[in-house]
Amino acid sequence: MEKHVDPSRIVLLGFSIGSTATVELLKEEKDRKPPAGVILQAPPTSLLRVFGNMIGRKKHLEKPTCCLDRFVTIDKIHEVTIPILVIHGKDDKTVPIEHGELICQRAVTKVTPEWVPDAAHDNIENCRVVWKRIRKFIREELKLK
């Protein structure tokens, strides 16, 4: 049995590489009624930029996107027209916080960042502050119950 849920009652959440899929979904489905908002947790700007960080490249975030790059959130975030909550751990070594900061800078819609102290890539979901912030975003900013 198919059930219909009003998209204005849906909030998408993508973590790490999943946040790139979330932004891609929003881009591909832009002709449909959009969800209420989106939460991007530890979002990479692009896959090659994450690898650049892993091999010690320092200035790779400012460079134009390479034609071989995939999962390029930084070049698509401007197409997201719904409220965005970006959550990033300050101690994230896998996808450094600079990625989240750039995502916030490039977005054209309202972006609310939450920079989580003492949180890394693999433990951010264990932080109480993250879930409190998500709850606040949904209930107070998006006005969903």
UniProtKB/TrEMBL annotation:
Gene3D superfamilies: alpha/beta hydrolase. PANTHER family: ALPHA/BETA HYDROLASE DOMAIN-CONTAINING PROTEIN, SERINE AMINOPEPTIDASE S33 DOMAIN-CONTAINING PROTEIN. GO terms for biological process: proteolysis. It comes from Caenorhabditis remanei. SUPFAM superfamilies: alpha/beta-Hydrolases. It holds the Pfam family Peptidase_S9. Residues 3-107 form the Peptidase S9 prolyl oligopeptidase catalytic domain. One of its GO terms (molecular function) is palmitoyl-(protein) hydrolase activity. This is Peptidase S9 prolyl oligopeptidase catalytic domain-containing protein. It comes from the Eukaryota. GO terms for cellular component: endosome membrane; plasma membrane.
